[in-house]
Write a structure and sequence with these properties.
AttH-like fold, 22 strands, ten-stranded antiparallel β-sheet, globular, single chain
């Protein structure tokens, strides 16, 4: 339990040491070039199972412009993790909070190069509120945990993708992660840190079927990082969902608490299918796009405007048993 608390206060670290299968953990590095014409998500991770034919480590490469997804498997024994300073490696591929290095050459794709990251802007972590999940993060029996490691940071360097040089210098990055036994039964997730109205402003939010003991509840979180301040709404902070409507083309979501209100309109776009974890394997089909557009309006209870803007290069996932989630709301 002490190790669980320690890791909760350091969400970037690997949480799987000593865990009984099934267990997964994955880090999500979003990369967008300065001209926004290149958008990639690089996802290293591991899936632990009692079945040796299922257990493995991986690096997913998602080209958010072409939609191409490649899933590169590694023996679980090649996965290495260091706590302080945080680092994860899979063979010659290395991932840290300040850079990543890729060296992938197989039948699926060739990706190589090093990118350096500027200072991260994480969701605040302290004893009373240890990250994006708040006090819920201390509970040791949840199906899935989530961390926001950097709302926004500058990028420097280039990757060579199938012989093509992709320069990310001057672009922006975002880092989050998930770990646990399985992805939720249904969820909506969205993120953007490309608001024309305000450099450095970032938004992330998710609403999901959250198992708890013998039942479940529609857990949610939403955060706007703006001018050095985090405006957050979450299940654990007594905020509430006033509206969540999902159509073929849009997601309309409104959350509020006693002090503030956040209105979100996401325009959906063509999605690619990424593998995701269940209790049995990496067989969950996760439709994701990096082409969505998200408009937000953050206001005070008296109607005063804190921020209004439209974010592009947005990540968006609408997945799983949405009917169950929406009926609960």
């Amino acid at each position: 339990m002490l190790d669980h608390i320690r890791k909760t206060l350091h969400p970037e670290r690997y949480h799987g040491t000593g865990k009984r299968p099934p267990f997964f953990e994955g880090w999500y590095f979003k990369l967008v070039s300065a001209d926004r014409r290149e958008r990639f998500a690089i996802i290293p991770g591991i899936f632990l199972s009692d079945d040796p034919t299922v257990q493995h480590a991986f690096v997913q490469v998602f080209d958010g412009v072409s939609g191409a997804v490649s899933y590169h498997r590694f023996p679980a024994e090649q996965f290495r993790a260091i706590d302080d300073p945080f680092a994860v490696s899979l063979g010659a591929n290395q991932f840290r909070m300040d850079q990543l290095t890729l060296d992938i050459h197989d039948d699926l794709r060739s990706v190589s190069g090093t990118l350096r990251f500027g200072a991260a802007t994480p969701w605040r972590v302290n004893t009373l509120e240890p990250g994006v999940m708040g006090w819920l993060g201390y509970l040791p029996f949840l199906e899935c945990y989530h961390g926001v490691l950097s709302f926004d940071h500058p990028l420097e360097g280039a990757l060579t993708v199938d012989g093509r040089t992709v320069d990310f210098t001057g672009g922006h990055g975002y880092i989050e992660k998930d770990w646990g036994k399985s992805f939720p039964g249904g969820w909506v997730w969205m993120q953007t840190n490309h608001f024309a109205e305000s450099e450095g402003t970032s938004f992330t939010g998710a609403c999901a079927i959250t198992p708890l003991l013998r039942g479940w509840f529609p857990g949610f979180l939403a955060g706007v990082w703006h001018q050095g301040e985090l405006h957050r709404f979450a299940s654990y902070s007594y905020a509430k969902i006033d509206k969540l409507e999902v159509t073929e083309h849009t997601v309309d979501w409104v959350v509020s608490d006693k002090q503030k209100r956040l209105e979100i309109n996401a325009r959906r776009a063509e999605a690619s299918i990424l593998p995701g974890p269940s209790r049995h394997d990496m067989g969950v089909r996760v439709p994701e796009t990096l082409k969505a557009v998200i408009s937000i309006a953050l206001t005070r209870a008296d109607g005063g405007i804190i921020f209004e803007g439209t974010g592009t290069c947005a990540g968006l996932e609408v997945a799983g048993d949405l009917d169950k989630l929406l009926k609960a709301l």
